[in-house]
């Protein structure tokens, strides 16, 4: 099952200013594991192996980018760690259909398949070498429960491949601080975890939307609510309002002395304000109550409208563990 970890502790904040490129909006939510030659391969392979037991979270690893120099060693480490899928997934016909459809597609393209050599089952955790993973996913269904692996030679090439297709988040594995930050800041995704995965704090509103829920924020529903009267489908927010709503500083947080959350923000492009990407509040009573809350305080109203019209990029790494303080 997916692990939803929320960390909470006193924090220190400092301003960070950075102009962000437009972040990608993926319809199918999953995570990408980017493994460099400077990684702790044991830990990275543990994360990938464990990801096969998660078929529900928006950050489940379904895409693997591996540096060429460590390809053989990484596969040697990860294959014996691949355990059977949880029974709750194996009992699902849709899960079986998605898996078999992906394997059939890979076989037709004569792609290499990697799995635990001791697992003789037909439906088992499998890594497929080559191609974009969109070749293996059925329209209208969740991502097929396989991991698609592609190889990169240089860090620059790895960043380009991750930006081309990532699923909405990237877990970067690299123990050289300068290279880790080069990759993290070069990625155009809402969330980057360095040498970690799925670390959260309520103080940083994350951008994951899955099943109508925004993960990581204390005001999840308010974050993505638009006022139909003024900011509905046919009334794109004005540049003047956008500047007002986005007029607050990004922050850097150290949570519990363990994880560092660096949150960068910039104005979201109007073209990305797609109604279908927003959470809908079902009842009129609920809508009216939220309107009352927002209208009662200009600051709260602006903060929440800002969260709708602002894109965030959050970089997370284990502070004082992987890197020196």
TrEMBL record:
> Which UniProt keywords are given for this protein, alphabetically ordered?
Signal
Annotated GO molecular function terms are: oxidoreductase activity, acting on the aldehyde or oxo group of donors, NAD or NADP as acceptor
Q: Which InterPro entries match?
A: Ald_DH/histidinol_DH, Ald_DH_C, DUF1487
SUPFAM superfamilies noted in UniProt: ALDH-like (SSF53720)
Which domain of life does the UniProt lineage start with? Answer: Eukaryota
Signal peptide positions on this chain: 1-15
Instruction: Indicate whether Glycosyltransferase appears among the record's keywords.
Output: no
Give the protein name, as stated in the record.
Putative aldehyde dehydrogenase
Supply the source organism for this entry: Lutzomyia longipalpis
